[in-house]
Specification:
The chain is mostly helical and 77 residues long. The chain has two domains: 45 residues, no CATH class; 31 residues. The chain is 83% helix and 0% strand. The chain has three helices and no strands. It is rod-shaped.
């Protein structure tokens, strides 16, 4: 797995420190979520929701492949 580059962490730390100094709690929370999402995107990470959606899609595709293999075997035999 790729390590997160140090400049990304330094940038994240600086931005979080600035947010905590200058904004009210609601703004900090909203900005922190956006900042973390941006950092995850740069680090090629996905959210749990995205991961779960892809797992569901993969399960459906595997089921469809099994159905097609069965159909092909029936027609060949």
């Amino acid at each position: 797995m790729n390590a997160t580059p140090p400049p990304l962490l330094a940038d994240l730390q600086a931005r979080l420190a600035e947010l905590l100094r200058n904004g009210p709690a609601a703004d900090v929370e909203r900005n922190m979520k956006a900042l973390l999402a941006q950092a995850f995107q740069r680090a090629d990470l996905v959210t749990r929701d995205e991961f779960d959606a892809q797992l569901e899609r993969l399960a459906r595709l595997q089921q469809r492949v099994e159905q097609l293999e069965k159909l092909l075997a029936e027609r060949a035999g």
